[in-house]
């Protein structure tokens, strides 16, 4: 284990810092210390001996109204920590300096473009110390009324004409109503973002009836549309609103429920009260009949859910669309391959996730209606970006926060986002791509524990996934940081890559050792974190970068290999058991010494002589007590078996099987289990009378005479054994018995018989 996990070895003891922020910067440094051999890999920005700084707790909203831009690496704080600090004191953080920027916080290696802009606009600059001083000394500011941007302010008041059921205050509405339902947009004005998509949808619906008359060409005129876009941004809402606006009676089918053809038929029947779907979708339907049906619009929601369970559903939907007499709006999140056929018959309208400023004012207004106070104006932005602009999520998160709090500050908002993130279920593929991706390693925000947390999502499968895929990654290596005198500078990168891979491999094998201890005879579950570090965190620390295979990460093939190995072991054992009378080798010897020879002898005659070789092969099989299943198994177990099987003519193979099945073959012995059961069955039978035994003996003797003449029966040892046993048992019972009919006496007699035999 050459990886130095013992942080005390690498990190000089740092004096204790009070703030959690400084802790995380410490963690970031600790991560750097994982890069073994500091002489080879010199971290660019390692501060020589950073002096710990106390992170100030400034006055409330002391940076309100000020805009900050960050450039370069700060001495103590990571960029993200510093930005959080500014935001939590009410300041705004933007990416590029402009005339409206209040300060630029400059660290080591600042961006040249930003420096130019600073000069151009004459913006005051701060270093880390000055920023901390500013926070320490700035006075508290009284909160301004909620929405900040002037545009947002005026729009918010317009927008919130939600007066229909007037959900003005939380006390008047039932608690159970979710904010996302309560504040469902009731007019197009209230819908944030995607204006052009909504316009297109409206245009399509407006033109629908005239297009029906002239006929749909599936080129520019479509009878249906497909709205695609990420969740929670108002696709379903927009479809309903436009439908109502254009005077349609909207019927929504959640496609997850109406997958199959039958279910779809039923669903449509309920819309039209027609008896058959054919009748309804018949193009020849007269215009009056169409009018009689009223103006109905069908929304097929979540059509991507349809294809998951039942492809027939999508095909059927395509058929409906081709013949439809009413407009159909299909909605999906991802239009993957499965929906390809649908895209041919639908006009596609893409919904984008709205920008922060498009959502901000609505979120703030809803919060103010619900009496949820935002301590800083930038909280809304943080929550919106944290939820990926999924408005449904945002409203749900805020409404559950409101259940126990009346206000929210910046840090709480961030924590809320983080907590909700944890509830997301990650599949092994997601986790693998996160660990192999550069973002979690570049961005120094996450510490080792965050990465270890990913391991706990899938602790069984993830190590295998890492093992399966780490060689497909081209590790991200900064060749400038490698110093080696003994190699050609051109080879430096290649060598660094190989070194990274070898370290990852070493760590994976350490992880495998932990795994065997965890799952060993004395399970040591306390090793789980160590296992996670060795099997997942360290390998991906060394090897993360670009997935060169270009494809999705592969599922561990070792799982498949294990089951195949077990199967091979099983069939090899069968073969060995069958051959035991002839051959005394164990499983391995059979596999290595006998099977190659048998393979040729059992297949070549069929290839070379065709049907004439069949009897030769069967004879050999009988000699070794191999049955047809064993023949198949030998072909499967041998190298090149597949190829050989192809060489055997199909008709020969069929004739071989037929001939084998039609003739009888020697059976080496009965399985131990069946002998046992017959024994126990015999034991459970009542002990025969002495006279009975005599009779059996006589019958057996007769049988013996017959069997002596019969070649085949003589081969069958079991039959002979049984009759002998019975007769001898009777004789010996007579000899040894004291006259009492006991089980013990009979059993003893049996033993004697065996010995004689
Ligand atoms: N653009 C928006 N403007 C205002 N509110 C919105 C918007 N988008 C979503 N919402 C809120 O989120 C809720 C859910 O929206 P909707 O059902 O339309 O999302 P969707 O895009 O259909 O999502 P999904 O893909 O998950 O079906 C709405 O009831 C509304 O409260
Ligand atoms: Mg929806």
TrEMBL record:
Example of a GO biological process term: DNA strand elongation involved in DNA replication
GO molecular function: ATP binding; ATP hydrolysis activity; DNA binding; DNA clamp loader activity
Organism of derivation: Gigaspora rosea
Protein keywords: ATP-binding, DNA replication, Nucleotide-binding, Nucleus
Compartments, as annotated in UniProt: Nucleus
Comp. bias (Basic residues): 748-757
Signal peptide: none
SMART domains linked to this entry: AAA (SM00382), BRCT (SM00292)
GO cellular component terms given for this protein: DNA replication factor C complex; nucleus
Spans annotated as Disordered: 1-57, 139-178, 699-757
Pfam families xrefs: AAA, AAA_lid_RFC1, BRCT, RFC1
Compositionally biased residues, Basic and acidic residues: 1-32, 714-725
InterPro entries the record matches: AAA+_ATPase (IPR003593), ATPase_AAA_core (IPR003959), BRCT_dom (IPR001357), BRCT_dom_sf (IPR036420), DNA_pol3_clamp-load_cplx_C (IPR008921), DNA_replication_fac_RFC1_C (IPR013725), P-loop_NTPase (IPR027417), RFC1 (IPR012178)
Domain BRCT: 58-137
CDD domains with a match to the protein in the record: AAA (cd00009), BRCT_RFC1 (cd17752), HLD_clamp_RFC (cd18140)
Family: Belongs to the activator 1 large subunit family.
Annotated Low complexity bias: 163-176, 731-741
UniProt cross-references to PANTHER family, sorted A to Z: CHROMOSOME TRANSMISSION FIDELITY FACTOR 18, REPLICATION FACTOR C SUBUNIT 1
Full protein name: Replication factor C subunit 1
């Amino acid at each position: 284990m050459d990886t130095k996990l013992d942080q005390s070895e690498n990190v000089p003891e740092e004096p204790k810092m009070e703030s959690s922020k400084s802790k995380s910067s410490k963690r970031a440094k600790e991560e750097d210390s994982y890069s073994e051999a500091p002489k080879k890999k010199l971290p660019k920005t390692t501060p020589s001996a950073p002096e710990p700084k106390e992170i100030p707790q400034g006055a409330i909203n002391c940076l309100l109204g000020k805009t900050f831009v960050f450039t370069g690496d700060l001495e103590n704080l990571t960029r993200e920590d510093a930005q959080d600090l500014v935001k939590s004191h009410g300041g705004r953080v933007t990416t590029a300096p402009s005339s409206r920027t209040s300060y630029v916080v400059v660290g080591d290696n600042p961006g040249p473009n930003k420096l130019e802009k600073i000069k151009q606009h004459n913006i005051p600059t701060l270093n880390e110390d000055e920023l901390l001083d500013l926070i320490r000394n700035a006075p508290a500011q009284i909160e301004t009324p909620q929405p900040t941007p002037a545009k947002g302010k005026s729009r918010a008041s317009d927008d919130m004409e939600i007066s229909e059921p007037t959900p003005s205050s939380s006390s008047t509405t039932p608690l159970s109503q979710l904010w996302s339902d309560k504040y469902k947009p009731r007019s197009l004005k209230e819908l944030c973002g995607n204006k052009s998509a909504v316009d297109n949808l409206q245009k399509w619906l407006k033109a629908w009836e005239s297009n029906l008359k002239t006929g749909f060409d599936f080129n520019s005129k479509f009878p249906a549309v497909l709205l695609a876009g990420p969740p929670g941004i108002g696709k379903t809402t927009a479809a309903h609103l436009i439908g109502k606006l254009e005077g349609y009676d909207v019927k929504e089918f959640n496609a997850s429920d109406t997958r199959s053809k039958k279910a779809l038929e039923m669903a449509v029947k309920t819309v039209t009260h027609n008896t058959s779907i054919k009748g309804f979708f018949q193009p020849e339907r007269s215009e009056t009949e169409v009018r009689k049906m009223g103006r109905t619009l069908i929304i097929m929601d979540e059509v991507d859910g349809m294809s998951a369970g039942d492809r027939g559903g999508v095909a059927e939907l395509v058929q409906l669309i081709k013949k439809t007499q009413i407009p159909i709006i299909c909605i999906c999140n991802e239009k993957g391959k499965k929906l390809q056929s649908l895209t041919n018959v639908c006009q596609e309208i893409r919904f984008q996730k709205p920008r922060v400023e498009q959502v901000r004012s609505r979120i703030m207004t809803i919060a103010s209606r619900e009496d949820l106070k935002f301590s800083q104006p930038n909280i809304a932005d943080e929550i919106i970006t944290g939820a990926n602009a999924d408005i449904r999520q945002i409203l749900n998160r805020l409404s559950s926060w409101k259940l126990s709090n009346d206000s929210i500050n910046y840090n709480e908002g961030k924590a809320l986002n983080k907590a909700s993130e944890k509830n997301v279920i990650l599949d092994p593929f997601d986790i693998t791509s996160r660990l192999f991706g550069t973002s979690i390693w570049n961005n120094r925000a996450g510490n080792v524990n965050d990465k270890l947390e990913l391991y706990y999502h899938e602790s069984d499968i993830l190590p295998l996934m890492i093992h399966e895929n780490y060689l497909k990654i081209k590790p991200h290596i900064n060749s400038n940081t490698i110093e080696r005198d003994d190699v050609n500078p051109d080879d430096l990168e290649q060598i660094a890559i190989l070194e990274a891979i070898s370290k990852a491999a070493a760590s994976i094998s350490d992880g495998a050792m932990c795994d065997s201890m965890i799952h060993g005879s004395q399970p040591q579950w306390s090793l789980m974190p160590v296992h996670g570090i060795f099997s997942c965190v360290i390998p991906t620390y060394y090897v993360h970068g670009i997935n060169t295979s270009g494809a999705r990460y592969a599922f561990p093939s070792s799982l498949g290999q294990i089951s195949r190995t077990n199967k091979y072991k099983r069939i090899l054992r069968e073969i060995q058991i069958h051959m035991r009378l002839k051959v005394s080798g164990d499983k391995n010897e059979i596999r290595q010494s006998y099977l190659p020879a048998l393979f040729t002898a059992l297949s070549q005659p069929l290839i070379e002589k065709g049907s004439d070789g069949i009897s030769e092969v069967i004879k050999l099989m009988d000699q070794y007590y191999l049955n047809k299943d064993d023949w198949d198994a030998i072909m499967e177990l041998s190298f090149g078996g597949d190829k050989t099987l192809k060489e055997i003519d199909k008709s020969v193979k069929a004739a071989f099987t037929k001939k084998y099945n039609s003739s009888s073959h020697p059976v080496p012995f009965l399985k131990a289990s069946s002998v046992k059961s017959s024994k126990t069955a015999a034991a459970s039978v009542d002990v025969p009378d002495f006279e009975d035994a005599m009779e059996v003996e006589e019958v057996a003797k007769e049988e013996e005479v017959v069997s002596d003449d019969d070649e085949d029966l003589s081969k069958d040892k079991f039959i002979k054994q049984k009759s002998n046993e019975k007769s001898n048992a009777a004789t010996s019972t007579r000899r040894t018995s004291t006259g009492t009919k006991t089980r013990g006496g009979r059993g003893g007699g049996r033993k004697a018989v065996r010995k004689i035999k």
